[in-house]
Specification:
It is a single chain. This protein has one domain: P-loop containing nucleotide triphosphate hydrolases (Rossmann fold), CATH 3.40.50. 51% of the residues lie in helices and 13% in strands. The protein is built from 8 helices and 5 strands. A 5-stranded parallel β-sheet has the order 2-3-1-4-5, sandwiched between helices. α2 packs across α4. The longest helix has 15 residues. The protein is globular, with a radius of gyration of 15 Å. Bound molecules: shikimate-3-phosphate (S3P). The site of shikimate-3-phosphate has 9 residues, from loops.
């Protein structure tokens, strides 16, 4: 792994449907920052859709691509980064996420998360044998272990979450 100075990014982690991508874009717009999305970055880097990477190369390969993309983000100026929901499932990625900056865990109830997702067929792990609640329970300790801040999004739209979270990060001198 490359060694690097902390680039002071703000990273959003959490389950699919937590609103990470939209909130990252909204925060970036409001504070004049650049936003990145690890799923979009990987699709561009690999030249395949996320669901095709899972189907053709498997989850472990996807996690490795996430790691490669995080290494690329280590070279960028401070930005807002939306991380794929399963990025915290490998020790290497958890270590990288924590080194890249301030990590916000967007907490969401699994049923609410699923109801927010419009294309479930694009989320390979939500179509697997585990229910969203089981997956979230399995991952919760990993999410918590990476988080500098936990923000509950339950019952709130992305506009409200990004506004409140922005104010909180501003108060902390991070935005
Ligand atoms: C995944 C979540 C997805 C995407 C991939 C795997 C997961 O990202 O990275 O389908 O393991 O939970 P979103 O959290 O943006 O849906």
């Amino acid at each position: 792994m490359v060694d690097f100075e902390c680039p002071n990014h703000i990273l959003l982690i959490g389950f699919s449907g937590a609103g990470k991508s939209t909130i990252a874009r909204k925060l970036a717009r409001r504070y004049g920052k650049v936003s990145f999305d690890t799923d979009i970055g990987i699709v561009r880097m690999v030249g395949k859709r996320v669901e095709d990477i899972f189907a053709e190369e498997g989850e472990a390969a996807f996690r490795k691509y996430e790691h490669d993309y995080l290494e690329y983000l280590a070279t960028m100026d401070p930005a807002i980064i939306s991380c794929g929901g399963g990025i915290i499932t490998t020790a290497e990625n958890r270590e990288m996420v924590k080194k890249l900056g301030f990590v916000v865990l967007l907490r969401v109830d699994p049923d609410e998360a699923v109801s927010r997702i419009t294309r479930l067929d694009k989320k390979p792990l939500l179509n697997g044998e585990k229910t969203p609640s089981e997956l979230l329970a399995e991952r919760w300790d990993w999410y918590e272990s990476c988080a500098d801040l936990i923000f509950d999004t339950s019952g709130k739209g992305t506009g409200k979450v990004s506004y409140e979270l922005g104010c909180l990060l501003e108060d902390k001198g991070l935005l």
